[in-house]
Design brief:
Elements lengths: L1 H15 L5 E3 L6 E2 L6 H9 L5 E3 L4 E2 L1 H11 L7 E3 L12 H15 L5 E3 L6 H13 L8 E3 L6 H22 L7 E3 L6 H15 L4 E3 L7 H11 L7 E3 L6 H12 L7 E3 L6 H14 L6 E3 L7 H10 L8 E3 L6 H14 L22 H35 L17 H6 L3 H6 L4 H8 L5 H12 L7 H20 L5 H11 L16 H11 L6 H11 L2
Amino acid sequence: MASDIVAQLADSLAKTGVEEGELSYKGQERKLNDAQSVGEIVKEIQDFEGLQALRLEGNTVGVEAAQAIAKALQTKSEIKRCYWSDMFTGRLRSEIPPALNSLGDALMLAGAKLTVLDLSDNAFGPDGVKGIEKLLKSSACYTLQELRLNNCGMGIGGGKILAASLIQCYKKSRAEGPPLSLKVFVAGRNRLENDGATALAQAFQMMGSMEEVHMPQNGINHPGITALAKAMQHNLNLRTLNLNDNTFTEKGAIAMAEALKHLRSIQVINFGDCLVRPAGALAIAETVSEGLPILKELNLSFGEITSDAALAVAHAVKNKDRLEKLDLNGNCLGEDGCKALQDAIEGMNLSEMLGSLSDDEGEPEDDDDDDDDDEDEEEDEDDEEVEEEEVEEEEEEEEEEEEESPDNKFATPPSALRPPDVSSFLSFPSPDKLLKLGAKKALLIEQQVDVTDAAKTAEAFLKIASVYKEENNEVKNAVLDTIDGLLKKAFASPSFQGYNFVSSLLVLLGLIKSEDKVKPVLVVPGHLQVLEHVAQQDYFPKESVAVLEAFMSR
């Protein structure tokens, strides 16, 4: 009898969890294919008064099963936390969006106010992000504090969709009351790369509420790191920043060091395996020594840091009373450098804080190849951009095939399809894509382009202008209207630098050289025809017209 009572108690605890109002099926490895297989779960959800959290992680949920669970959730207005990681193991790619759509629709119908949404370890790719896009934009997520999407394979496209959804949620929530104030964001191992990270950086900067950001292993190089650094400056309550295993190089590390100067609440910095190099480490050391009063952990392991830079980091943490861990393993200190570092740390009574140095790479053989390395890096980035374009084209083709295929039973229903994709147009401009953006094309593009950044505005200008067709009035008017809207907004911004915009245009058109080795675009007639139009508009400064005329007449 006693054993039966213990068994019942254990079963009860497994289902209800330790948190108030939580129903848990965590790690039960159930294969939930249809309504019958989730009958017990559905009944328990229906009978659970005051349900606040539902754990489904570690099971595999099919479309029909998800729809049945969703129906049970439609009356659960108090639900706040959805722990739905590792929920689609063995499922077809086409099953995931409709399953997520069903669950999301139920939460919206219930009037839920979510605080936690965890969909990690589902490997659902960009399609999965589309499955939660509507939910993320809805009032159910106005109160969201934690968004966990670790190891989901979102890719660049998924990252952009996610960022746009968060931005729209923020704008809508702010218009109706308190704005979205996301605090924890986890998206490691997602192949976000520079474009995905840059898109998310815009969302982070707009919200300004982040306390933890975890984005390790995303193939982000210094342009994406720099964008994130700029965004982090606006998140003054940031406590944890984990960008492990991305490629900072000196440029990204120095930008991040500048950002850290604004973050006095930071406690954990993980820039391990980020190739910060000596110059980046010195910049970070300077920031640490001048501020960061409550720093607890600093990870600069495997970053090609030399002995002198490592010693500078050690001296920078000397007076950090709350420091618990300093990781400088796997760098290029050499035997003498490791001993010097250990002696310095011991002299500061911080020996317990220093991690192992067992994986030190030894002193660098050559230190005069930086220029060659930088050139190699730029070539690699050019290759990556070509690969990104190919991947995005393949994804678009796959999406088109899925939408056209009569065998795709579980495609997202028409009511949940996304509006025309601005990022797709800006990535691969065409007249047809521009027209498909509809009557609000100018507004949609204005929202996508950061008009406070003169260089990005110039790039967008040339992409839009490239599809101009003098003989096609519809396309011609669409281009000119869009350009006028974009540049009016840009030149109306107090922070917009018109001179930098014109300089960037001239560089991209190949009329002047840039120190940053910017690759000029292929100039087409539309570029020049649209420039001629712009030069005649009232919003375009006359001094800029004079500069353009001087160079264009050469």
